Amino acid sequence: MAADPEDVALLVRADLPAGWQMPDLSPIDPERDSAEIDAALRYTLWVDNEPGLDRKLATSHNRVEEGRWYLIQHVETSTRVLLRLQRQYLLDQHPMGEVRISGIVYLPEWAGDPVASPILRELPTSKIEAAINRRQFAVTGASNFQEGRMRLPSGRTLRSAEVMQPLGDPKRTPDFYELVALQHARLIDDGDPNPTATMARLSNVPLSTVQGWVARARHKGLLPPGRRGRAG
């Protein structure tokens, strides 16, 4: 169910919260320009090979050559921000990797102007990362309801209103972990601070049971990896 990382853009317009946009005519092409931006900012560490051989990138950090720079813009102030996005590959998480922001460059509307301090404080990095990772994983494709309905892998048609119903028995319910992922994602989108606790109440099961369901859904690539220190 997980999407192929090579087929998924790291950032699209829909990932940005209100007040931010991707310029229609961006001078930055993530695929063409990112390696040069990394080099210009000395973001990468280069070491010399043996005499006569080309230099090579030396890093142990998550395939740093896969990082991509995207230009976004704050609508009200026209401040532009270069975001560097990169997958983080951890041994205990889904092999697709979670997308994280690994670099930020602020560019005021006019060269030489100061960067407004509210922009420094209010750049919604966590919201952008969360939106990207919801889209990157299969649950987003599954939750793309058409006229309030969607078709699950088993062929069953699911109505949007049914997402918040009790989940049932994983051994008897078709598409069970897709339903777990859909319900968890719905609660996250609604701002629930502890979605697993809410899911436990809805299905009248222990919290530890739902935590196991959610962990299994993550392992299947139906949800983004969890973050340490965050409930749900």
List the helices and strands and how they pair.
Elements: E1 20-21, H1 30-40, E2 46-47, E3 56-57, E4 68-74, E5 80-88, E6 98-107, H2 117-122, H3 125-136, H4 138-142, E7 149-151, E8 157-159, H5 176-189, H6 195-203, H7 207-219
Antiparallel strand pairs: 1-4, 2-3, 4-5, 5-6, 7-8
Helix pairs in contact: 5-6, 5-7, 6-7
Low-confidence stretches: 1-7, 52-62
Strand arrangement across the biggest beta sheet = 1-4-5-6
Count the E strands.
Answer: 8
From the alpha carbons, calculate the radius of gyration and give it in angstroms. 21 Å
- Mean pLDDT figure: 81
What is the SS-derived class?
A: alpha+beta
Q: Spell out the helices and strands N to C.
A: EHEEEEEHHHEEHHH
- State the separation between the terminal residues, measured CA to CA: 22 Å
Strand content: 15-25%
The best one-word shape is elongated
Number of helices: 7
What does this structure look like?
There is one protein chain. With 232 residues, the chain is α+β, with helices and mostly antiparallel strands. It is built from 7 helices and 8 strands. It has a 4-stranded antiparallel beta sheet with strand order 1-4-5-6, sandwiched between helices. It has a two-stranded antiparallel ribbon with strand order 2-3. It is elongated, with a radius of gyration of 21 Å. The relative contact order is 0.13.
